[in-house]
Amino acid sequence: MGWRYAQVHPDPGPPPPRPEPIDDPPDDPLRDVHVRVRSPMLDRPVKIIATGTGVFGGLVLACGLLGVLPWKFAGVGLLACLVVLGITGYQSWQSERALRARLRQERERIDRERQARERRLLAAQAEHAAAYREWERRRRAYENQREWYPVAVPPEADRVDIVGGTLAGWSAAVTTMGAARLAAGARVTVLDFSEGAVAGDLVRLATARGDDPLVWVLPGDLPRLDLSSGLSADALADVLSLVVGAGEEETSTGDLSLDNSILERVISGVFGGSATIPQLTAALRALAQVGDPRDDLRRGLITEEQLARVTTMYGRGATDRIVIRRAWALEAQLRKLERLGTEPVLLPPSRLRVVSLDRGAGVLTNRILGTYVATALTHRIRNSPSATRWEHTVFLCGAEKLRGDVLDRLIDACEATGTGLVLLYRSIPPHVRERLGRRGHAAVGFMRLGNAEDAKIAAEHIGTGRRLQVAELTDTAGAAISTGPPGSAEACYASTIAYARVRGDALTDPVWAPLPAPAADDSVLVAGISSATAWGRTLPATGKAGGSRELLVEPHELQELPPTAMIFTHSAATGRRVLLVDANPGIITLPTTHSQQLEEVLQQCHPPAEGGRDALPPGGTESPSPEREPSPGRTDFRSGRP
């Protein structure tokens, strides 16, 4: 379906801060301690007494030396001074001893604190180194991660309804899904009623790969288109009766039954079960009493016997006005198909077939041609044997132009035979709204809606208020597409069968080259998208999405979706899933594209825990191991899903 933007590895943020270093110690860390510890232990009176005693002893000694005092008195005085000094000195010595002990304790405490700080710093540095290594690993994983994951159609789905979108958006979606199916070896049929050549890039891509696509541009290639060959009379009448009602509102069962009865009677009763469109219109003109039947007799479209059968089919004179009116309507509509299959050609085998409508034709003509192609293809699908699901994929672009009963028949036929069906609607008229996501297992994708009413219906279907993630690359690529779409939305198809050899040519039948084998990976597809299309040129070479923004599901937001953005929703075993998908086919060329879906990647990273429950984290922050991760930009198409 496209690509989903997601970051398995979140932004690691800034690096962890470095731990703070140890503060430089002061010049004398014990100076303040010395003053604080010594002051309370030294007694000021002791100091005064010791000082006074020393001064007095000096005077006594001086007086003794000078003979002022006898030595007996001087000796007694000196002895008394020595006793006092001894007492005060011992007390001072005790104080200094205590001071040294306290200082030693303070030094030991300071050393212990410094060693503790050093240990904490070493531990913090080791922790910072480990945290920084982890941050570097997460940063490398964040910068080198792949941001785009493929989104596949769920296995149980047999149809996809895509609503809204521009021609460039349709071109992206058809190219992305169709290229994946072709690479898987499946057959792809595109009915392009958009008149915008939305499968042009897919045609160029298939041509570059060697698939030799077959392209019909109607009504120019109508003589070389024969979808109704081999149909029984009943089936042909059924197809043509639906074609007649293409230009009308959905008719009643009675009108459809009457048209079918008239055509079946003409084909079986008049022409013996096999008739061309010109023969049918000639018989209907005779039945409706339009023009001169002798003109058709001269042209060889009808014989006298067949004309007699027609005129007597509903009674002579064909007086029933209802039959005349319906026969006239049948002839008026089927005249536009008179050239159908008049020039059958030999066509080579091809996996891609495109039937488109020329915008130069009339609106009613294109509607009739589109109804015929869709109805005839429905009968061919119904008669085809059942095959692997999605082995044959049908894209119907502009499906809102077909009536509801025509769509119902195509949906039922594809579901019964396992044919994958992708219906693209530009708008949501009432008959589309009734069938959107219903009738079988259908997934729904919403692209840019054109008007407010359609956007309101889409918002109700998705769920108003839901928040989705839009990559910046989706917005920037959408802005580049709006100035000049890189796809083929503004181009025209070139018919590939206009000069095909007519059947019955005397030349020897050509030997067709074998079709290329299914791709083992997407390397060929990547090269083809890069060379044959211009989608990858609007994307950055690095492949980085450049961030994302949040989108709130509201009607006005759905009217401003980027051209390639698609809100994809479907029912799953775990509940209803709503994803925002980018259908840009150029994303597969980016180096940031993953080969597995996001759920598969997370499942590999976090296998189910015991008991069978998934052990996936909500954020999905881990990535698959390198040995299990596929090579970059390689998608395995062998799963058989688009």
TrEMBL record:
<keyword id="KW-0175">Coiled coil</keyword>
<keyword id="KW-0472">Membrane</keyword>
<feature type="region of interest" description="Disordered">
    <location>
        <begin position="604"/>
        <end position="642"/>
    </location>
</feature>
<feature type="coiled-coil region">
    <location>
        <begin position="96"/>
        <end position="145"/>
    </location>
</feature>
<feature type="transmembrane region" description="Helical">
    <location>
        <begin position="48"/>
        <end position="67"/>
    </location>
</feature>
<feature type="transmembrane region" description="Helical">
    <location>
        <begin position="73"/>
        <end position="93"/>
    </location>
</feature>
<keyword id="KW-0812">Transmembrane</keyword>
<feature type="region of interest" description="Disordered">
    <location>
        <begin position="1"/>
        <end position="30"/>
    </location>
</feature>
<feature type="compositionally biased region" description="Basic and acidic residues">
    <location>
        <begin position="625"/>
        <end position="642"/>
    </location>
</feature>
<keyword id="KW-1133">Transmembrane helix</keyword>
<protein>
    <submittedName>
        <fullName>Uncharacterized protein</fullName>
    </submittedName>
</protein>
